[in-house]
Amino acid sequence: MKRNGYAVLLFMLLCLLLTASACGRTDDVRQEGGTAAKPEEVEAAQTDETETQAFADGEGPGEITWEEIGEDGAVNEALLFANTDEEMLVYVARQLQDLCAEIDRKGERDRTYWLTGQWYGDAMGSEQYANVVHLGEKAVKPLFLIIYKSESAGMYEWVCSKALDEISGLDFSEENNGAGWRDSKEFLEMFIRRIVEQGN
User: Fold this and answer.
1) I want to staple 68 with a disulfide (CB 3.0 to 4.6 A). Which of 39, 80, 173, 185 is the partner?
2) How far is CA 58 from CA 166, 169, 198, in A?
């Protein structure tokens, strides 16, 4: 009973975070950011480069089990909520929402911003994105939960997918005739399929 109460609380929190997402343009791929994390959060979250790379290569202490994903690819939401750290979910969501808000502001000031592709470099080179990626395995289930529960496939979801893609080290570059995944919905399908193929 207590576990169900926690899952409901976490679900409500996720709904609030998704609703409060600062990314106003959910139909476009855009964003960028700038709210710095507290020093103690960054220090606790960051791993050294070799440990992060070992996780991305599928080696080392970072092996994640996916008991939430069945052999048929179905996601057990209650288990996913129960296995997702609430504080980490809030931290990851806040970092990437701040990033999206910054990019949106740049796009509102300069409409050509979206056409130049500068938003991509701003997103990938941002402090917020780096903070999330440096979390390594700690960010994996929060990112997956955000993508899985979001009804949108906009910039916020794209950035979450990009971070999960980078952290997981899974290679989707051969998908879609070498184009990779196009949006968060497609990424989610590919990610789940790969987890099932690898036997969780």
Assistant:
1) 80
2) 12, 7, 11
pLDDT in tens, 34-79: 333 333 433 444 434 433 443 444 433 347 899 999 999 999 999 9
Gap between the Cα atoms of 115 and 123, Å rounded: 15
Q: What are phi and psi of 169, to 5 degrees?
A: 75, 10
Are 158 and 147 a contacting pair, CB within 8 Å?
no
Distance CA 58, CA 72 (A): 23
Residue (of 198, 199, 181, 179) closest to 190 by Cα position: 181
Q: How many Cα atoms sit within 13 Å of 77 on the Cβ side? A: 11
Exposed, middle or buried, 191 (CB in 10 Å: 0-12/13-18/19+)? buried
